[in-house]
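#structure-requests
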Amino acid sequence: PRLSRSEMRSPEGVVDFGHSVCTFLVALVATEGMQRAVVDMPDGSRSELWVLQPPMERLAMDTYLRSCGHLLLDAWFVLYTVVSGGDRPHFWLHRVVRNFASCVSVSACMLPGRGVRYGACLPSANYLMEGVSIVLRLTRSERRPSRRGIIAAGVVQCATLWWYLKLLYGVRDFIPDLYLAVQLVGAVADRVTRLHRLLAPEHLAR
């Protein structure tokens, strides 16, 4: 069934929708205001990297870290509901995996270090995907998206992944290899779970 108005107006639905709107708007403004900065690379060369403008950097980092708290609480709520024998939320496993993957990806690039300023722009590319969730929720078609909606969501997923990988490649010399791997796995896992949810058999049967 499609998302009903009662589901949209439930406390959980309102909070989740508010999270999507806030993080998407911050990511959109942060991405629009990104600027290229000439930096000294570890090998002695100089290169241009995309960075957030100083006033926006703090707001973006605070918003993304608060988002991690929301996602972890949401994952805990879903797991508690499943373990306690309550009604399992729709696509509950996808939701838990995606939440944990997003938190790992975001927190990894916020760790203190020389590359924190250059890594702070990475989550913005991921949170732009919340724009798809907002549109699907407003049309109450998140559970039964149209084929056109599936194609549009796939295009956005691919575009944001390309932008994310471009940013990640630029900061590779400032982030330890382990964090690079975490970033890559987290970003891919997030998009795979989102696409798998959209491509579920009950969606394609429409």
